[in-house]
Design goal:
The chain has helices spanning 2-9, 17-34, 42-52, 66-73, 81-91. With 99 residues, the protein is mainly alpha-helical. The chain has 2 domains: 2-34, no CATH class; 42-98, lambda repressor-like DNA-binding domains (434 Repressor (Amino-terminal Domain)), CATH 1.10.260. The two termini are 35 Å apart.
Length: 99
C-alpha cells in the first residue's frame, strides 16, 4: 500500500487511485475481522474522556452531582439513557460508546 501511495496513488487523478481505494477498503475490512474492537466498560470510556478534556467529576452536571459521577466511575451506579445521551452530545461521540 505504501508503495502505491508513493507511486502517486494518493492523487485522486492518478490511475492508481481506484486501486488504492479498493485495497485500502479490503485491508480495513480484514483488520476489523482479525482484530475486533474489545468491549470497554462505560466507566472506563467516561474516565478516558474526562482525562482527555481535563475534566473533574464536578464538571459533568449533565449526569448529576459529583457524588453521582463518582459512583458511576467506581462502578456502583450505571449510566442511564438520559446521561448517555447527554455525554454523547457533550463529547461528540456515538452513544454506543457508553453502552
Amino acid at each position: 500500500m505504501n508503495q502505491l501511495l508513493d507511486a502517486g496513488g494518493a492523487d485522486e487523478s492518478s490511475p492508481l487511485a481506484d486501486l488504492v481505494n479498493t485495497l485500502g477498503s479490503l485491508i480495513a475490512d480484514y483488520e476489523d475481522l482479525q482484530n475486533p474492537p474489545r468491549a470497554v466498560a462505560p466507566k472506563v470510556t467516561l474516565r478516558f474522556l474526562m482525562e482527555q478534556h481535563q475534566l473533574t467529576q464536578s464538571d459533568l452536571p449533565e449526569i448529576g452531582s459529583q457524588g453521582v459521577v463518582s459512583e458511576i466511575l467506581r462502578g456502583k451506579r450505571e449510566l442511564n439513557l438520559r446521561q448517555i445521551k447527554a455525554l454523547a452530545g457533550r463529547f461528540q461521540v456515538p452513544a454506543a460508546v457508553f453502552i
